[in-house]
Amino acid sequence: MNALTSGILSRLHASRGYLSGESLCREFGITRSAVWKHIGRLRDAGCRIEAVTGSGYRLEALSGTPTAEEVSLFLETRDAGSVFHYHKQAESTNLLARNLAAEGAPEGTVIVAETQSAGRGRLGRLWVSPAGANLYFSLILRPKVPSFRIPQITLLAAASIRRALLDACPAVVAGIKWPNDILSGGRKLCGVLCEMQSDTDRAHFVVAGIGINVNQEVFSGELQGKATSLRLETGSSVCRSVLLAGVLKRFEELYLQWLQADDLGFIRPELERHSVLLGQRVVVERFSQQLEGIATGIAPAGELLLLAADGNELKIGSGEASLSNTYH
Amino acid sequence: MNALTSGILSRLHASRGYLSGESLCREFGITRSAVWKHIGRLRDAGCRIEAVTGSGYRLEALSGTPTAEEVSLFLETRDAGSVFHYHKQAESTNLLARNLAAEGAPEGTVIVAETQSAGRGRLGRLWVSPAGANLYFSLILRPKVPSFRIPQITLLAAASIRRALLDACPAVVAGIKWPNDILSGGRKLCGVLCEMQSDTDRAHFVVAGIGINVNQEVFSGELQGKATSLRLETGSSVCRSVLLAGVLKRFEELYLQWLQADDLGFIRPELERHSVLLGQRVVVERFSQQLEGIATGIAPAGELLLLAADGNELKIGSGEASLSNTYH
Known about the structure:
The structure is a homodimer.
Chain A: H1 3-15, H2 21-28, H3 32-44, E1 48-52, E2 56-61, H4 68-72, E3 84-90, H5 93-102, E4 110-116, E5 135-141, H6 152-168, E6 175-177, E7 181-184, E8 187-199, E9 203-212, H7 230-234, H8 240-260, H9 268-273, E10 281-286, E11 289-298, E12 304-307, E13 313-316, E14 320-323
Parallel strand pairs in A: 3-4
Antiparallel strand pairs in A: 1-2, 4-5, 5-9, 6-7, 7-8, 8-9, 10-11, 10-14, 11-12, 12-13
């Protein structure tokens, strides 16, 4: 989409009612047939635009596609999303983001893909990424904090996405599964994969990769019964461009606080209140080790606290948590 | 150097005495003039080879240049150096190594450069890298350990380089300046810069970059009085290809033990005995913070232990340490 098409979209979105072709001609200094051409492009991109003789054009619905132009209509951040790359198709947005970051892309750069051929979750697992329904994006960060604090960004992202999901769908019940997933009714709604390049002292850059199941209606194969979407949980579609702008806003709010803080203590109550693990019997796998206990809290530095059967309190920095099926 | 040239070098090195041109012709199935051509190439590469009519060829001295062919003569490792890239000139071997690792280069891959145009030390500082005298190389690792253990590799490398320096120059007095330098007489002999790409759970890869001042005789500018070399400390030149093979051997020994261990506890006595900080008043800078105290030890996980003036023991994971000039 070029700047003129984007400008016309912005005007249509701001006006809410009808906007005459003549006023668009005047404002952008173009002919009526040029206006018509740009309207055609917006329709091709998926926007529903009504044209009524004598009244003009009215934006009935956005495309929902999280392009730079559409997302920018809703962006309320300082840095996050100020550089924005939209791809119809990508291997993985985290891979693109790592490459851009290595070349010097600034903090706040966002890479979105409509679909990913090799989207990844934690531990190298595939993140199934069909087109047209969901959000897959990565955010480049350059936090000036000691590298041992970087893993906290995963929980920070989870908390901010949960806030943004509730902004968009106040009815959705969403809980955080430590350290990187958001669940609804026990099914996965969203996942976060943070990656970094660092030396012993500091992170060179961090890439926060986020996948949110937004409007997908069917999950088949091994995802059946394990994944869900906002649409399935609430019965209505959510505009992806609005949601993406909302996540960026909520993330930036928390991120700026976190940079000034020592740890995650400032959102610890929220992380604990909305944890799906707390009070449950949990097994955490890390490498070949299995740790088991009752989840009792989230430590200020982001570790999961487990009360083991022998009465010891375990403080777990990373791992794959699941609710235990064994009862003793 | 091609495989035949390399094979002839290997035979000359193994024979120690004279090797007739005829025996080389037979062994490699080539003509006398072809043998002569390969000898010429070895001489061009810097090897000193004597040719005596009636006796044959004798290797008087290696080039010392740490090429794949020369280093392989001395390599006694399983993985380290089994894939080996030698560059006459590189921006930085860590940068090359990161790119190769991202493309899937196996554990043990070594990248050597004769000179670096943008060699880097910690905190983004330049590592001055003139040609023909020193060692600049990077080793790719893929340790299957939790990512919080990765910073320990810096000290592990420092300990193994110290061992290899003593193998090559038993008279040198070398101490470890936590966490990543080796000093002799208070001057820098060697630096380590470990970098990694990771997610919250595990490192995708680690690049251990190592610079050793071997035969450099003059340090000017701001390095004057701050840097030294094996040559300056011992009065004699050291063969760089032998030293590099030695570092790889010593490193692999310790690395394989470390993979099986929980931490650096198994070399803690060595790390403490040869620390240049222990018992000294030390200031550690990390980000904008300054921590000061008497260095009392190295913790099993690699942290520096400082006894602060208020009697508290500080455990410092990373930072830039220096001996304090203030006496109170």
